[in-house]
Amino acid sequence: MSIAIGYMPGAFGEGGDNPNYLRELVETGDRHGYDSIWLSDRIVSEKFSLEAMTACAMVAAYSDKLKFGTSVIAMPLRNPVVLAKQIATLDFLSQGRFFPAVGLGQEEPEEYEACGVSKERRGPRTDEAIQLMRRLWEEDVVTHEGEFYTCHNVSVTPKPFLQPSTPVWIGGRTAAAARRVGRVGDGWLVSSATPAEVKEGHDILFETADEFNRVIEDDHVGVLLGYYVNNDVEEATIKANRYVTRQRPDAHFTEFTAVGPVDRIAEFVNRYIESGASKFVVRPLCPAEESMEQLDILGEELLPQFHK
After folding, report:
1. Which of 116, 156, 213, 273 is the most buried (most CB within 10 A)?
2. Alpha-carbon distances of 144 from 136, 192, 263, rounded to whole Å
3. Where are the domains of the chain?
4. How high is the pLDDT of residue 14?
5. How far apart are CA 265 and CA 285, in angstroms?
6. Looking at the predicted structure, is the pLDDT value of residue 264 above 70?
7. Architecture of the domain delimited by 36-167
């Protein structure tokens, strides 16, 4: 099983007023041999955030080797025909380097209202959207009449570089999310999950895939891992805690976040590998001005341990 480590900007660290920050992030990834870069999706937010699909197009232009993806696109807020076109275009132009991960979106209702979509039944809406996108990529002409979407005699080009269709990864920590991967997805990218929860979701995912006579590759289980490198574990914990975007009431953030020296980060990664994960997206929990240094440390000291 191949281990691949990608990265994403820090919790509040996408560069603010610096339009060159994304380019600098990409250059950092290329310099150290990171597998991929991932961008989050917030359409409505008080905090600075780039529109994910547009920013991914810039990543494709900045680098000719780095893979890139979304973590995660709020699927219910997007029109699946338009999104299928965008994904296929990025996949085609980058020659198979784009890996979209999708999810249900945030819990707050304001973003759904602002985008003209009801939050109700967002799960079935997402399932139908993924299935429709896959048909648009694989079929020349599509007619679809569903609960949420309707189209007649529709064709979308270009077809994706990756055949028969672009792999769709799905986010979410719940058992329902793992089952959704088994039913309609191609991979699982989970965040804020402990190694034990990853193991449980891994088993649910592949059991569900078997029930639906689907094949999902063994190495298509990924973990988004927050981290902060500092030889003083207590100091690292205090620092990282300020940049955890969503605290869990049922688990302390250090149960799913790696803080401390690099050896401790590596131990955390190995615990997730033992739980069935093989793809990682590391996220420095620090201010934007520290993110590059943190990514440099892992690039120099952690990646050589796993990218062999």
Report:
1. 156
2. 10, 36, 52
3. 1-34+219-308, 36-167
4. 54
5. 13
6. yes
7. Alpha-Beta Barrel (3.20)
